[in-house]
Write a structure and sequence with these properties.
The protein has seven helices and 25 strands. By secondary structure, it is an alpha+beta fold.
Length: about 425
């Protein structure tokens, strides 16, 4: 009888114990994959994630071993890039993942300015496609360089060139110059100005610094359809996107106090108007920190204050929606998530992304919630700072998912690597 019970217990426990070992092993491989991706080793991240899944997986396996599958998605979507940049540069991706524009933040100290200006790249392979503008038309060294902007459909690229007093429009596919838009001479305040496209790409907002003025342009004719003048010491920052012919920007007149009062303005074909003056923040609002990201529905945007709290505002009214204190977000850059249901943070410490609900609690990253809205920075030698491989994923819209993704990855492995991986993959039972 005892022998019978022992055998029965063995039969009952063994599958459960095997499942537990498989789950633990899968999660361990998933952690290895995330660690490898955090260092930029995409190949190692993909291999570790595949090891966390069984050979010839079925749909239920992707649910059971979800940590490993999620790690595979992140590693497969990620596209690490190293660019040959001699100076600290900011970069901007188009919406298709086929173009990247970089611009130096300042002239190169070695005197070679050939790669310090606006440059067009193919981010899929790091190939330079064209040198578009030299650094000496972007800055004299006395003020900051504005980040470039792509139209939502990836057709156009715009760069402020204040030394020449213009915003320059390029064909993003070829790098050919299309138009020069006047009214953008350098002003009295560094980091003022910038550009943004409406959500449908029909309008372009450009903010000049001398005179301090907002211009709205029709992207079919490249004719100006509206303008609004401001004081000589007003910081202007564009807000991405905009619907129904309305775009928005912030204005902060430093001549009116320290910290300056910050206003939300709207502009359309019928002119510009004040939407709201934000309530005073004792530490000030970071309204002059470049183009401000919005969610995909153009409902919300976020700005930091001087204490590095992140404040989320409603775009139509300027009303405060949420406030995440610096004790929660830490040393992070934050934007509204594309879904509009939270904020995305990029830590300056571990370069890993986080997603938070508006109440400050952690939320899982969705496929749509990728950090493409945060402007990454490349250091000397083209190594990315303040970013991670997750920044370069373009949301993965062109990539297969589920079992199709697993098979696509395995099919690219050499035979020897397939055998090595198969020997370590988790076993269901």
């Amino acid at each position: 009888m005892r022998v019978f019970l022992a055998v029965l217990m063995t039969l009952l426990i063994t599958p459960l114990w095997a499942d537990t070992l498989a789950d633990l092993k899968s999660r361990d491989f998933a952690q290895q994959s995330r660690a490898a991706l955090g260092t930029g080793d995409r190949a190692a991240a993909i291999i570790a994630a595949i090891k966390g899944l069984p050979a010839d997986p079925q749909a239920p396996d992707l649910v059971r071993f979800s940590d490993a599958y999620d790690a595979l998605v992140r590693a497969a979507v990620s596209r690490s890039v190293r660019l040959d940049l001699p100076v600290m540069s900011v970069f901007e991706f188009d919406g298709t993942g086929t173009r990247l524009a970089s611009v130096g933040l300042f002239p190169s100290t070695d005197g070679d300015q050939s790669q310090s200006g606006l440059t067009l790249w193919d981010p899929r392979n790091g190939q330079k496609l064209a040198d578009l503008l030299p650094i000496n038309v972007l800055t004299s060294g006395a003020w900051g360089v504005q980040a470039p902007a792509f139209s939502p459909d990836g057709r156009f690229l715009v760069q402020m060139a204040p030394v020449d007093g213009v915003a320059v429009v390029f064909d993003a596919a070829t790098g050919q110059e299309i138009a020069r838009l006047p009214g953008h001479a350098p002003g009295n305040i560094p980091n003022s100005g910038g550009t943004a496209f409406s959500r449908d790409g029909s309008l372009l907002l450009t903010l000049g610094a001398s005179p301090t003025v907002a211009h709205l342009w029709d992207t079919t004719t490249w004719q100006r359809v509206a303008s609004q003048d401001f004081g000589d010491f007003t910081l202007l920052s564009p807000i991405d996107g905009g619907r129904d012919g309305a775009m928005h920007f912030t204005a902060a007149d430093v001549a009116k106090g320290t910290p300056p009062p910050v206003e939300l303005w709207g502009i359309g074909r019928n002119g510009a108007g004040l939407v709201r003056q934000f309530p005073p923040e004792p530490s000030g609002l970071g309204a002059h920190w470049g183009r401000i990201a919005t969610d995909d529905m153009d409902r919300l945007f976020a700005m930091p204050n001087g204490n590095f709290d992140l404040i989320v505002f409603e775009r139509a009214t300027g009303n405060e929606v949420a406030r995440l204190p610096s004790s929660i977000i830490g040393q992070s850059t934050g934007v509204v998530a594309p879904s509009g249901e939270g904020v995305l943070l990029l830590s300056s410490l571990d370069a890993l992304p986080r997603r938070l609900h508006f109440d400050g609690t952690d939320a899982p990253l969705d496929d749509i919630d990728k950090l493409t809205a945060i402007h990454g920075v490349f250091s000397l030698g083209g190594e990315m700072m303040g970013g991670s491989p997750d920044l370069l994923d373009y949301r993965g819209a062109d990539m297969p998912r589920g079992l199709e993704l697993y098979q696509a990855v395995i099919d690219r492995f050499p035979t020897a690597l397939k055998d090595e991986v198969a020997a370590e993959q988790v076993v269901r039972d």
